[in-house]
User: Which sequence fits this backbone?
């Protein structure tokens, strides 16, 4: 009896284990079920991303029209940038997909290139002194910014160094991260710098020179002025410019490539197409929204702290910029306005739009900003090996 009972118990236990195993197999999703789950998750993510992008563009457009009604300078860019930045800090669903900004940047590059004309480079020899001045400006501005973030903000050596260098955002964050800096803090500092420079520079211009940066970037061009031939030339210049910038590995290839192709076509008189103003306005709204979206998903307290620190560093940078532009204008034939735009540590696209609005030579501004990025990347990397805190060990 005991043996029978034991066997019965073992059989029952074995059958129970088998049933549990069968139940687990039945409960486990099949390959098709897992694929369905992945597809549902992807669709939900796509919907959330699309809604966030649409919300961002809607807020950017509202901000642009608000700035237009308030007669603010560059309203389509600054209004979009301001409102989306505030919304991002307030943790609104703000997002600009990576594919959205490059086409708009290429549109602006093609439009900027259309301002090229014969005689534009007739006095290129006068640009040598400003270029030398740029080197001295970068050394002074970079050193002052490093000391500010190291001594006042309390950043570690690497983070303070690459957060303070007035170079490109992507390049500085990448180089600093590779050397052990705080990636998030460096990205936020550079984003805040670009935001504050672009937002404040038009008002600084007006306060110092009395010359206001206009609401537009030239004469209004209506949609009805665009012919089929103009559309073809515009599309060709844009696509060829992106291809050129990509294969030639231009810095800011989506901007400099189309500027180069469009500029050459207009300079040699191959075409004289103009782009309707509404297209430029849409491009500015998207670019402004992309700047604002950089603050999304960051801790609001951290963003506010970074902005508070960046107000001081940006004020310091712009003071050095204005002083350098004034001194160089005394010993060169370039205007103070052109030099401020050439030296200002803002974004290339944004500074070029201001140049277009102020009727400043765009190639002059572009050359100095490209030189600034290249000099900072090369010079800052070399200098970083030589500059080391006293208490840090030798490599």
Assistant:
């Amino acid at each position: 009896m005991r043996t029978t009972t034991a066997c019965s118990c073992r059989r029952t236990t074995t059958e129970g284990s088998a049933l549990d195993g069968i139940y687990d197999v039945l409960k486990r999703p099949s390959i098709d079920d897992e694929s369905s789950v992945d597809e549902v998750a992807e669709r939900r993510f796509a919907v959330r991303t699309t809604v966030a992008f649409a919300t961002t563009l809607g807020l950017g457009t509202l901000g642009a029209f608000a700035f237009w009604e308030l007669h603010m300078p560059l309203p389509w860019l600054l209004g979009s940038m301001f409102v989306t930045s505030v919304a991002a800090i307030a943790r609104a669903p703000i997002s600009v997909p990576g594919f959205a900004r490059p086409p708009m940047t290429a549109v602006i590059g093609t439009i900027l290139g259309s301002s090229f004309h014969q005689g534009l480079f007739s006095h290129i020899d006068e640009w040598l002194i400003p270029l030398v001045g740029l080197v001295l400006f970068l050394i002074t501005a970079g050193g002052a910014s490093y000391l500010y973030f190291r001594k006042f903000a309390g950043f570690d050596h690497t983070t303070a160094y690459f957060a303070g260098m007035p170079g490109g955002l992507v390049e500085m964050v990448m180089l600093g991260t590779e050397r052990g800096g705080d990636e998030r803090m460096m990205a936020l500092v550079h984003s805040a710098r670009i935001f504050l420079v672009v937002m404040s520079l038009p008002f600084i211009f007006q306060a110092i020179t009395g010359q206001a940066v206009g609401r537009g970037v030239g004469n209004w061009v209506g949609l009805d002025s665009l012919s089929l031939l103009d559309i073809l030339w515009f599309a060709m210049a844009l696509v060829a410019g992106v291809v050129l910038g990509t294969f030639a590995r231009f810095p800011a290839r989506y901007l400099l490539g189309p500027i180069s192709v469009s500029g050459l076509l207009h300079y040699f008189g191959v075409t004289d197409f103009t782009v309707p103003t509404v297209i430029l306005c849409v491009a500015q709204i998207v670019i402004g929204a992309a700047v604002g979206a950089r603050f999304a998903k960051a801790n609001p307290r951290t963003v506010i702290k970074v902005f508070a620190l960046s107000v001081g560093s940006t004020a310091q940078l712009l003071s050095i910029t204005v002083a350098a532009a004034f001194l160089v204008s005394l010993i060169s034939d370039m205007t103070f306005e052109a030099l401020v735009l050439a030296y200002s540590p803002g974004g290339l696209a944004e500074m070029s739009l201001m140049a277009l609005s102020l009727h400043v030579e765009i190639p002059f501004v572009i050359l100095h900003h490209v030189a600034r990025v290249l000099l900072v990347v090369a010079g800052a990397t070399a200098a970083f090996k030589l500059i080391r805190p006293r208490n840090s060990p030798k490599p």
Confidence is low (pLDDT under 50) at residues 1-16. The chain is about 75% helix and 0% strand. The CA atoms of residues 97 and 155 lie 31 Å apart. The chain has one domain: 102-386.
